[in-house]
C-alpha cells in the first residue's frame, strides 16, 4: 500500500475518532473533554466518567467494528475473487447475530465473558462454511448472492424467533438492533469482549496478503507459487468469522461496509489484496466512525441504527456493481 | 342464554358502535355511579391494573378471570392471588367463551379484542392507565362503580388518600428514575409522582424531561443525582436493560429501593412503594 494512501487514511481515522469522542448529548468543551480522558484516581469526576466510560468505548467500538468489517470484506472478496462477497450480503453477519442472540437468551453468555463472541463466531463460521460449500471460488457471483440471500433470511428468521420467544419483554423489540446494528450505550466491557476476536482475526487475515496476491493469478498458478490453498481457505474462513463474530456480538449486524470500502479503495491501492487488506481495515474504520457520528447528529435522542446509514450508501453501490456484472450474472 | 348477545356482525353498523362507545365514555366520565340495572355477575379483566382492582373490590364469585400479566410477579404485586383465577391471554374468543356480562379493559391494550367483544354484544368498560396519584382514587371508585361495589370502592379510595397524605414527604435529595433503554419517568408521570411523594426532587425536570423520556447516560452522570432508582430486570437478556449494569453507573449511588410491580398500577400497593422509597431516602441521611 502506498505511503500516501496509508497516511491519508490513518489521518482520516484519527480525525474521525477524535470527533466521535467529542460528540454527545452533554456539551463538553474540547480541552475539558480531552483532558478528562486521562484523569484518574481521586480526580476522576463526572466528566472523566463520561469520557472514559461512555464516549471512549463507543469510539473504540466504531474503530474496531469498521476495521473488522472492512478487512473481512476485502479478504473474502480476495479469496472468492468475487467483488460481491461481503459479510452482510452473504449472511455472515446475520448468522453471527443469531449465534449471539442464542448465547444471550440461553444464558450461555452470562457464564463466561467470551461465550457471547464465541457463539457469534460459531454462527459466522457455519455460514461461511456453507457459503463456500455452495458457492466456492468457482461457484460464480449468482450462486454466491442467492446462497447469501437464503442464509440471511434463515438467520434473520431464527433470530426473530429466538427473541420473540424470550421471557424478556424488551428482547423482541431488539430484532432491529440485531439486524441493523448500533453502538449506543456500549461500555468498556463490550470492548473487552470483542477485542481479542478482532485482534486475532485481524492478525490472521493481514498475514494472508501474499497468498491472496498469488491467488489473483488463478488457483493453479497460486499452487505453483507454493500457496497451500486448503490452508489459505481455512485461515480466511477462521479470520473472517472471528472478525465478524467479535464485532457483531456487541454491535449487531452492520451491512455493506465490507462491500463499499474495498471498492472505493481499489483505484488508489491497486487490486493486489496485500495492499487492499490494510487499506480496507482503515477505510472500514473511517466509514463506521463516520456513520456513528452521523446517527448522533441526525437524531441525537433516537438511537438511529448504523445499518440504516451504511445501507443508504451501500445499497446503491451494490446495484451499481450488479449493473456492471449483469452479463456475468445472466 | 349467552348466545342472545351474539348479534350478526353485518347488522351491527358504525352508528351502533359509535353509540356504544359514546355510552361507555359517558359512563366512565360520570364515574359510572348510576349504571342502569344490577351488578354484573361474571366479570373478566383484560388489563393488569383492572385485574388487581377487580380482585380487591369484586364480591365473592363475581370476578371470573384475570389477564396473564396478573400472574407475573415482575408486573403484578398480586401474582399469588391471581393464581386462584382462570387466566386469559386477551383473545376475544377465550373471553367470549367465559360468558362474561362485563369486561374490564385498559384503553391502550388489546384494542382489537375490545372492538371484537363489543361487536359480539358484550359490555366492555375501559380504564386509562393512571398517570398521577390523584387519578388513583378516582379510578378505584370508577372500577368499583361498574362492579356495583361503589361502597367498597369509596372505602378503598379514602383509605388510599389518607395513607398517601400520611406518607407524603417534603422534597429533599435529588433522584433520577432510570430504566431500560435509559427511560426516565418525569414529574408528570405516576412513577415521578411516587418519587416526589417519597420526598425526592426529580432530576429529569432539570434536563427538561418533565413528561418523562430517554435520558442519555452521559447526562445522567453529569447530573450526579443523590440516588438512582432503577427498575427490576426481566429474565432472559435484553440490550435495553444492559444499560442498568453499565460500568459508568457504578459511580452513582443507587437508592435502596427499586421500581417494582407495586409502581405499575393505581392500587393500594402504591403506598408500599412510596413507603419503601421514603425509607430509602431516610437511609441516604439527607
Highlighted features:
heterodimer; A: 330 residues; mainly alpha; 15 helices; 76% helix; globular; B: 286 residues; alpha/beta; 5-stranded parallel sheet; 3-stranded parallel sheet; 11 helices; 39% helix; disordered N terminus
Question: What report would you give on this structure?
Answer:
The complex is a heterodimer of chains A (330) and B (286). By secondary structure, chain A is mainly α. In chain A, 76% of the residues lie in helices and 0% in strands. Chain A is built from 15 helices and no strands. Chain A has helices at residues 3-22, 30-36, 46-80, 92-106, 108-111, 115-135, 140-165, 175-180, 188-206, 209-215, 219-224, 229-251, 257-269, 273-298, 306-329. The two termini of chain A are 35 Å apart. In chain B, α6 (133-146) packs antiparallel against α7 and α7 runs parallel beside α11 (269-284). Chain B is built from eleven helices and ten strands. By secondary structure, chain B is α/β, with parallel strands linked by helices. Helices cover 39% and strands 12% of the residues of chain B. Chain B is globular. The interface between A and B is medium-sized, with 31 and 26 residues.
**Shape verdict of chain A:** globular
Question: Radius of gyration of chain B from the CA trace?
Answer: 21 Å
- Helix share of residues of chain B? 25-40%
Query: Can you summarize the main beta sheet of chain B?
Result: 5 strands, parallel
Order of helices and strands of chain A: HHHHHHHHHHHHHHH
Compressed to H and E, one letter per element, the order of chain B equals HEHEHEHEHEHHEEHEEHEHH
Count, helices of chain B:
11
SS summary, helix count of chain A: 15
Radius of gyration of chain A: 20 Å
**Which protein chains make the most extensive interface, counting residues with beta carbons within 8 Å of the other chain's beta carbons?**
A-B, 31 and 26 residues
Q: In percent, how much strand structure appears in the residues of chain B?
A: 5-15%
